[in-house]
Amino acid sequence: MDDKKALLGSGAGYLISTILIKGIVFLTMPLFTKLLSVEDFGIYNAYMSYEAVISIIMTMGTPVVIRSAWIEYTERFGVFEKSMNMLLFLVFGGILAAVMSAEFVSQGYVSKLLGLDTALLVCLLFHSSGYGLVITITEKYRMEFKALKVLVLSLAITVSSIAASLLLIHFKEEKYIGRIIGAALPYLVFWGCYFLGYIFQREKADKKLYKYILMLGIPAIPYILCENIMLQSDRVMIERFIGAYDAGIYSAISTMVSILMVTGNAIESVWAPWSYKIINSGQTRKLKAASTYYYLVYACISIGFGMIAPEMIRIFTSKEDYWGFSWLIYPMILMQFIYFTNKVPANLLLYYKKTKYSAYGIAFSAVLNVGLNYLAFKFFGFEAAAFTSLFCMAVHTALQLIWCHNFKMNIYEANKMLFICLCTTVIILTEFSFLRNVFARYCVGGLALCLILALFIRKFRLVDIISKQRKNGGS
Q1: CA quadruple 458, 462, 466, 471: dihedral positive or negative?
Q2: What is the DSSP string of 126-187?
Q3: How far apart are CA 99 and CA 89, in angstroms?
Q4: Residue 80 pLDDT more than 80?
Q5: Are 44 and 176 in contact (CB under 8 A)?
Q6: Are 444 and 336 in contact (CB under 8 A)?
Q7: What does the DSSP assignment read for 273-328?
Q8: Pick from 28, 81, 402, 469: CA 20 to 30 A from residue 254's CA?
Q9: Structural contact between residues 209 and 83, judged by C-beta atoms closer than 8 angstroms
Q10: Residue 132 and residue 142: Cα distance in Å, rounded?
Q11: Closest Cα to residue 441, out of 452, 430, 453?
Q12: Beta-carbon neighbour count of residue 352 at 10 Å?
């Protein structure tokens, strides 16, 4: 199989996997919002935010390292993988020992600080490590273009997590505990299996590779960590400073928007390895032209999502408590679109090993987001978090573009990218203005998608190609 077929197969496979997994999650979401109170939903989402952040520290940026190692250590990737796994388990052991020692000495202060008990704290640590290992092995499968393995792994974890949660919720008086343990259980099982696989792995670890892994991985941690703080801090701060009820409302709306994030990740998972190969071959002009269509495709997805978003909230949430806040989804859609636009400059900074510079920008944006949230909550309530996140994500993207410009890594059409961003923003804001007018909103979104489709048809001359094929078929 040549690279082009492998790339297309992987892209299609991963996109199908994303749609299938997210479809299962959304189909079961009304059931969970019915079984859990709004407060339970808020506590569960705060726990998941902690898990997302801790898992980054435990994986030490290895998903980023794998991309470089796949090119530099192709022939010795088994040895690299053994060395990487040894470091991951050593780091996990160190963090587990440190946290539990602090918990014991402080008489439970650590767990109380997170709003958990000691048992859930241990569960959180193993859950975070297991999730990090899943992300690591998934990144390896992506580089190998093994979309089927990504699908099977994701499907197994998602289905077992939902089944375990539904079962445990019925046996727990505090429903959020059942949801948390159910979500963690598949990752705990995976952690055990991964550890056994590591023990019986034939290759021996190479100590010389430790330096390579740490040199690339550690600088990536602040970047990935701060990026997740940007994405997760809203829910945690709302739960801690305002209350679990408001956190539940915000979490439900942001969960709906997560479909945009996972779709963007599906596209980016194909873009990243392909762009690395193109840069290696020196065909940067090809990459520059392709980046415009990369943005345009996601613009279409965002506009289409904005068109139907209010109806989706009513379908996939079972309580009217959430419906009155449907409007919050629009600043979140814009935030996700801007988040996606920085994927190209972010990948360039990673490829050229300039992660520390991108880390400066995201760290500033994350701190700014936390500060603005704290101030905004006092004057405007929890809804302000959607707008502070949008503003800070725009700052983050601007800083990424500035770094790329300073290091002469402008391998994208900046003017066209900014024009696409501006047009998409205007269209989504117009859809927002017709929140209560379904017909007008669908007309705006439909017209915009038709114009973009017409642009594609004109650019690629699809009409001429179809006519030629018909003539050839007729003759």
Answers
A1: positive
A2: HHHHHHHHHHHHHHHHHHTT-HHHHHHHHHHHHHHHHHHHHHHHTT-SSHHHHHHHHHHHHH
A3: 15
A4: yes
A5: yes
A6: no
A7: HHHHHHHHHT-HHHHHHHHHHHHHHHHHHHHHHHHHHHHHHHHH--SHHHHTTGGG
A8: 402
A9: yes
A10: 15
A11: 430
A12: 14
Instruction: Look at residues 259, 290, 258 and name the one whose alpha carbon lies nearest to residue 272.
Output: 290
Distance CA 51, CA 103 (A): 17
Is the per-residue pLDDT at 446 higher than 60? yes
At position 413, the amino acid (one-letter code) is E
The phi-psi region of residue 404 (left if phi > 0; otherwise alpha if psi is between -120 and 50; otherwise beta) is alpha
What was the pLDDT predicted at 53? 84
> Which of residues 437 and 406 earns the better pLDDT score?
437
What is the mean predicted confidence (pLDDT) over 138-162?
Answer: 83
- Strand, helix or coil for residue 383: coil
Q: Give pLDDT tens digits for 303-334.
A: 999 999 888 888 877 677 778 888 889 999 99
Backbone phi and psi for residue 243, each to the nearest 5 degrees, phi listed first: 150, 160
Residue 312: alpha-carbon gap to chain centroid:
20
CB neighbour list of residue 301: distance below 8 Å, 6 or more residues apart: 260, 263
Residues 162-185 have pLDDT tens digits of 999 999 988 777 888 999 999 999
Angle CA(307)–CA(311)–CA(315) in degrees, nearest 5?
Answer: 145
State how far the alpha carbon of 108 is from the alpha carbons of 40, 114, 116, 122, 287, in Å: 22, 10, 10, 12, 53
Angle at 235 between CA 21 and CA 88, to 5 degrees: 65
Tokens of 347: 């990948």
Contact 424, 302 (CB under 8 A): yes
pLDDT exceeds cutoff 80 at 395: yes
Closest CA to 220 of 359, 400, 346: 359
Per-domain residue ranges for the chain? 3-459
Helices marked H in 381-413: 384-406
Q: Which has the closest alpha carbon to 392: 331, 302, 316, 442?
A: 331
Consecutive H or E run containing 208: helix 207-241
In angstroms, the Cα distances linking 410 to 285, 296, 303 are 11, 18, 27
Model confidence pLDDT, tens digit, residues 231-287:
777 887 888 788 878 888 888 888 888 888 878 877 777 777 777 777 777 777 777
Name the burial class of residue 199, with classes exposed (0-12), middle (13-18) and buried (19+) by CB atoms within 10 angstroms of its CB: exposed
% of the chain surpassing 70 pLDDT: 90
**Which residue type is seen at 356?**
K
